[in-house]
Amino acid sequence: MDEHGTCGHHGHAHGRDGHGPARTADLVARAERLAQDLGLQFTALRRRTLEVVAEEGRPLGAYDIAERLSAPGKRVAAVSVYRALDFLTEHGLVHRIASRNAFVPCEHGHGAGESAVFLICRSCGSVDETISAEIERSLDRTLAQAGFKPASRIVEIEGECGACQGRGECGRLEPR
Amino acid sequence: MDEHGTCGHHGHAHGRDGHGPARTADLVARAERLAQDLGLQFTALRRRTLEVVAEEGRPLGAYDIAERLSAPGKRVAAVSVYRALDFLTEHGLVHRIASRNAFVPCEHGHGAGESAVFLICRSCGSVDETISAEIERSLDRTLAQAGFKPASRIVEIEGECGACQGRGECGRLEPR
DNA sequence: CGCGGATCGTTACACTGTAACAGGCAGGGT
DNA sequence: ACCCTGCCTGTTACAGTGTAACGATCCGCG
């Protein structure tokens, strides 16, 4: 299908220079430390799932991941991927993009309390993860005022990323 | 305000504690004015769909709506409901809760630019919609700083609503 | 060795959403 | 009156997303 839009010149915040191997290695290292510390199992399937998600520059569906993990003789079922993704999201290594039913690598080593803001570009399909203390604060204030005790937060903004603005339509994925 | 407060019983469809007939009538009236003004058709299916969503005190899936709209001799297919929901969401009469694949009535007559914050209670399943200028502002600031041009915003907070806190577990819906 | 716990493979199934085509109904122009 | 057009709805079929349940395997532990 669509080879993720060659957004050409990456002016925006895709990480230092594309989500590639560098970030992947970082994430895997983080996962290994985490598993070590907490006595969890960072199995081959979980590692490979994390790698696949980390090396893609856009959100991947569970079935896409399953496909990428499958080899001619060795099919990986989606349900296995879901289980691996459960593990990875529980420990903050990947995030689920609710508005897309898809998953992206975590680009921050954020602390448990912090919550991310996802900027999803409609043109090139990239997702950027940012953290803003200011947004946290105003959210906290609003929640406290409403007497609501938050457990998890989802903030997803769809629009056009900096790189795609004013350049016709960049990589052009069909909007979903 | 609206105490979904009598969660004491079984966390389902309380009639009038904020989500009941009163809101329904308001919403329908708003829809009729809107259709009048813009030359749109507020058909029976669309009205009934809106009513069903408005009278439920929690997010409803499209198939649930279809079921409620169906009568022994007259089945309403989910696809028709989806089309009605498209209309209703496009014009701000209902909102989609992305994290639940479900729909709630719009509790504000918000202006087009404003975006809502949804507070979703894990215990009783109720959804409260609030608007905070402060959150808007901090979001806008963060987006501007990232050079990102927003088109739509999703802010959904899961947690425990005020009414459910400290009362054991309120109405207790099985978590989804 | 036997037991318990966690992981993973496999199947089956439920839920969510869309594409495509056909019929009905209203309004507009001739 | 007619046809034409656009919109809405019904229907079928299907794609995509997610979970339940059962069994097999592996591993650490008493």
How would you sum up this structure in a few lines?
Chain A is α+β, with helices and mostly antiparallel strands and 176 residues long. Chain A is built from five helices and five strands.
Report the oligomer: homodimer
User: How many E-type strands of chain A?
Assistant: 5
Q: Whole-number radius of gyration of chain A?
A: 17 Å
**Shape by Cα distribution of chain A:** globular
Put simply, the count of helices of chain A is 5
What does this structure look like?
The first copy, chain A, is of the alpha+beta class. The first copy, chain A, has one domain: Winged helix-like DNA-binding domain superfamily/Winged helix DNA-binding domain (Arc Repressor Mutant, subunit A), CATH 1.10.10. Chain A is built from five helices and five strands. Chain A has helices at residues 21-38, 44-55, 62-69, 78-90, 133-146, and strands at 94-97, 102-105, 117-121, 127-130, 149-160. In chain A, the strands form two sheets. In chain A, strands 4-3-5 form a three-stranded mixed β-sheet, with no helix packed on it. A two-stranded antiparallel sheet of chain A has the order 1-2. In chain A, strand 3 and strand 4 (127-130) form a beta hairpin. The model of chain A is unreliable at 1-17 and 170-176 (pLDDT under 50). Chain A binds chain B through residues 12-13, 98-99, 117, 119, 121-122, 128, 130, 132, 134-135, 137-139, 141-143, 146-162, 165, and chain B through 98-99, 117, 119, 121-122, 128, 130, 132, 134-135, 137-139, 141-143, 146-162, 165. Strand 5 of chain A pairs antiparallel with strand 5 (149-160) of chain B, so a sheet runs across the interface. The first copy, chain A, binds a DNA duplex (30 and 30 nucleotides) through residues 41, 43, 45, 61-63, 75-80, 82-84, 101.
